[in-house]
Each structure stands twice: as structure tokens, then as C-alpha cells.
Design brief:
Layout lengths: L1 H15 L8 E3 L2 E3 L5 H8 L4 E6 L4 E8 L6 E7 L2 E8 L16
Antiparallel strand pairs: 1-2, 3-4, 4-5, 5-6
């Protein structure tokens, strides 16, 4: 029994944070997940309130911002080479339409 409890305490945090740094976003009842293309997201969610492209010969980042259901919440999406990599939800009065590249954070 003690081994089972120990394993639960060990495994639950790992399972709870397995999709770390990815907030769930739904559009038209469908879940927007990592790996979804820009075209699919725009088809499901419509045009973003903000969009910026950062491009060089090696990779392309596209930053998009969508209004969330809350009064002042926003979803911040980062696409790398056309596919969704990070989706973050920021709440009350975040102010900006774009945030720093989350892939550069520690």
C-alpha cells in the first residue's frame, strides 16, 4: 500500500504537467491542439485580433492573439513554420496583444 501511495505521489505531478505551457483553446466546440496548422486555426476561430510574422531563411514564427471568453482574457498562439507550437492564456488586464517568444524562456 505504501508503494502504491508513493507511486501516485510520484506520477501524478508528471501526468498533471505533461502538456506544460499549453493552455487549451476551443473554437466552434473543437479543441485547438499543438500541431494544428495556421489555416485550420483561422478556419475554426476566425481572424485573430493581432497577427505578426517573424521570418528568416531558417524558420518562421507567427504570433496570433485571440480574445478568450473572459472579459479581458486573451489566448496567445505561437506557430513555428506554419504549425501551432504554444498556446497561452493570460487573464485580467494583460494589456499587450503579443508576448515574448515563450520558447526562449527557461
Amino acid at each position: 500500500m505504501k508503494k502504491l501511495i508513493f507511486l501516485l505521489f510520484l506520477l501524478l505531478p508528471i501526468l498533471a504537467f505533461s502538456s506544460y505551457r499549453f493552455d487549451k483553446m476551443r473554437c466552434q466546440g473543437q479543441l485547438v491542439e499543438a500541431g494544428t496548422s495556421i489555416e485550420e486555426v483561422k478556419q475554426l476561430c476566425g481572424e485573430p485580433i493581432f497577427e505578426k510574422t517573424d521570418e528568416n531563411p531558417f524558420r518562421t514564427f507567427v504570433y496570433m492573439t485571440y480574445k478568450a471568453e473572459g472579459a479581458s482574457s486573451r489566448y496567445y498562439l505561437l506557430f513555428r513554420n506554419g504549425y501551432l507550437e504554444v498556446c497561452g492564456l493570460k487573464g485580467y488586464n494583460t494589456g499587450e496583444n503579443i508576448w515574448e517568444n515563450p520558447l526562449n524562456q527557461n
